[in-house]
Amino acid sequence: LVCSKGKLTHKDSLLSCCKFHWRGKIIFITPVVTMPILALGFCNDRAEYKCIYLIVNMAVFWISECIPLYVTSLLPLVFLPLFGILSTERCCSLFFTNTLVMFIAGLFLAVAIEYSNLHKRIALGTILLAGCSPRRLLLGLMVVTVFLSMWISNSATTALMCPIIKAILSEMEAEKLFSVYMTQDEEPVGEGEPPHPSKMSMAFYFGVAYTASIGGISTLIGTGTNLTFKGIYETRFPKSKEKITFPGWMVYAIPIGVIVNLLMLYISLQITHMALFRPNSKIGQEVKTAIANNHLVHGTIKQNFAELGRMTCHEIQIIIIFSIMIVLLFTSHPGFMPGWSDALNLQGVEGSAVMLLFVVILFALPTQYTFFKYCCGSAPFTGRTMDACISWNFIHNNMPWGLCFLIGGGFALAEGSKVSGMAKMLGESLSFVSTIPRDVVIGVTLLISIFCTTFSSNVAVCNILTPVFCEMVISSKNQSQNYYNSQLQALAVKIHPLLLTLPACLVMSFSFFLPVSTPPNAIISGYANIKTKYMAMAGILPTVFGVLLLWINAVTWGILIYPGTKEFPAWAK
Length: 573
Hints:
One of its GO terms (cellular component) is plasma membrane. The chain crosses the membrane at residues 20-42, 54-83, 95-115, 136-153, 203-229, 249-269, 316-336, 348-365, 440-470, 491-514, 534-562. InterPro entries: SLC13A/DASS (IPR001898). This protein is mainly α. It has 30 helices and two strands. Helix content is 66%, strand content 1%. The chain has a two-stranded antiparallel ribbon. The longest helix is centred in the middle third of the chain and has 28 residues, at 246-273.
């Protein structure tokens, strides 16, 4: 930054200021540049333009992360009441809805699994079962990642699997089975920088990160976008006869969206990173060598598994509690038969209440029951306290609390866009698709969603796009500015709202191009020092397969699961 005379030039000073203080500049410049939108809203008393102003600024803040994502999510609490769109009371209530409580309870239970160390036992046991050759090892890692990410957040699952992958690759390097890192000629690194993983090593990291995102769509609690969608859809269409239930979601998403997608991802990584059909290539020869000596890796995994010891009382209780909870969630409103909530006349009991009940039980149950022997014994008695199955301090330190603000802010933003009429205005602007065949329209929404989530948080994109897609279904002809006073409505797109919006929600978890696209992408990028260009290349086939499979799922299997989506419903008219 110093010129030849040793003095700081004006140009260098400006560049230095932009390099180190760009976040502050974005925070102040963006609201000023977009001020005409706000002025248009106030001058013409158009609430939708006021809402657009807020969303544009939040979108820029979310993408650039000039302030933390979670702080940006709190802006609706300030500006929606300030613009006269929603009251403060209504805004605050959206930050603690039934859907959000269900998400919080799911995070509590995920942390409880980590606290018991059960997740590590599941991971290592599955890998031993699958086998330890590179191809089978990759499949084993992907299967266990999918299963864990169904119940634990995809970021936590990825963070768990990365050290396991590193230990496996270290053993591969020690036994010289294949090249774990690139050479200086293949990818130069500076002094003090960690080496870049080889192409085959990257396959393990990509496999885990991508399958964590794929597994997240399996259940309602698998990832934040699922519950975000549920909250927005049920708020916008409270009379919908097609209910979003725990079992219904799983049956809809798992067969094609998860299982078939997992197989296609595995095949694509085998082709691009493990030289499938190219046995004479350098990587192909390394795979052969590793397969011939896979017993060496098996010994390391077996040793790590043996160090866990026998299954503890703590782990057994977690399994029992979790299993009972899943059964109750499945049988509450199964859809194909009356559930226990119908039999007990408890239709008002939602999944959040069931999940929170088991969270409370985990705080009450001890990790072991050795204290029973003191009940009938004689003094002296131990003064040691019994730990509960979950610790509040552990939850406090390991719980991603900011996600609650991110989802709550999305709910507030979605409600604001609905009340102000902004979502309807944008939906009407897309009414030209009413002349396009149904299946093509679904494909268009999938492409819009995957493009937008490539450059931003998928939860944030879900909060913005889902209300717009909902309004594509209904187009208001009333000239009244008040959204709730609309009396005359005309069809914009003759597609069931669930058929149009649910695939778009799921595909937001399938952007595998950039580190910013999903949390698992960001985790492996930083942990394994993977350059963006390698991730972008590796993500092409998985992303294409994901979009294509979700489109097929929507127009075939999805209609079988939700038969009411075949035609435009009367309640939406």
